[in-house]
Amino acid sequence: MGERNSGSKSSRWCLQGMTALVTGGSRGIGYAIVEELAQLGATVHTCSRNEAELNESLKEWSTKGYRVTGSVCDVTSRVNREELIATVSSQFNGKLNILVNNVGTNVQKQTLDLTAEDFAFLINTNLESAFHLSQLAYPLLKASEAASIIFISAIAGVVATNLASVIYSAAKGAINQVTKNLACEWARDNIRTNCVAPGPIRTPLLEKHCTEDTLMNAVISKTPLGRIGEAEEVASLVAFLCLPAASYITGQTICVDGGFTVNGLNLF
Ligand code: NDP
């Protein structure tokens, strides 16, 4: 098998010579993932919708000496997705080691207020785009002979929380299952598939949906580690799962949540 863990100690813990596509890398968790992968030696392509913000991030990475390129892409558009993979294919000579399906967003409404448009938008952004990009990237991943797909899910796909709408949660729950199916179906092609489910992480998305101190304090009080997480703390797990050192891990959904999802009732 292509990726079996037989390299030297240092090559098991680095991504030198590998190529990666990270969707939604211009800020937040995606930004931290791009940095982490690039620091470990990968050549990374990323995308987002806002060109100015993307260019700003690309400039920062170039200053730091990281090999990162980017293109504007709205992953909710089927045509844009096809163009993105064509760009990646030509840039990386038809091979891709790592696909991180990071883009996701929430519409915070009660169930009865959600519209058909909300449903289509949330399912497309959080589920269909990641699924279709994985299909499109499959030949490139297979050609690399040692590949990893990482889906960025959410603890809302593992436990019920009304910080997230039910459609967002359902889409993330579906992503957790897609992870298991692809892990089994594509193992023969040396493609591992894992899923990272963050708890509340300090990013522009969280700040948009968790504006009140009381809400933030409620989240913190349910979190055993007693704080909100940082994007880098998600990125480090994503990078680990892509390393040759993780070559026997596939089909898993791992929460990065300060213990939120394992917390029961703590009375004393
Ligand atoms: P942010 O909103 O902070 O960043 C999202 C990134 O994705 C930006 O680069 C944004 O750029 C890009 N993006 C958004 N929509 C699209 C689109 N349609 N096409 C292309 N790019 C897009 O989000 P986070 O970093 O917080 O979240 C990242 C992932 O982590 C998501 O899947 C989210 O569900 C998940 N998550 C986050 C948690 C948190 O507390 N922050 C908790 C649990 C899960 P632009 O807007 O310019 O397109």
UniProtKB/TrEMBL annotation:
Identification of the protein by name: Tropine dehydrogenase
Coiled-coil intervals, chain numbering: none
Entry keyword annotation includes Transmembrane: yes
Signal peptide: none
Keyword Membrane applies: yes
Gene Ontology molecular function terms on file: oxidoreductase activity
Transmembrane segments: 149-171
Source lineage: Eukaryota, Viridiplantae, Streptophyta, Embryophyta, Tracheophyta
Protein family (similarity comment): Belongs to the short-chain dehydrogenases/reductases (SDR) family. SDR65C subfamily.
Gene3D superfamilies in the record: NAD(P)-binding Rossmann-like Domain
Pfam families according to UniProt: adh_short_C2 (PF13561)
InterPro entries: NAD(P)-bd_dom_sf, Sc_DH/Rdtase_CS, SDR_fam, TR
Organism: Vigna unguiculata (Cowpea)
Keywords (A to Z) from UniProt: Membrane, NADP, Oxidoreductase, Transmembrane, Transmembrane helix
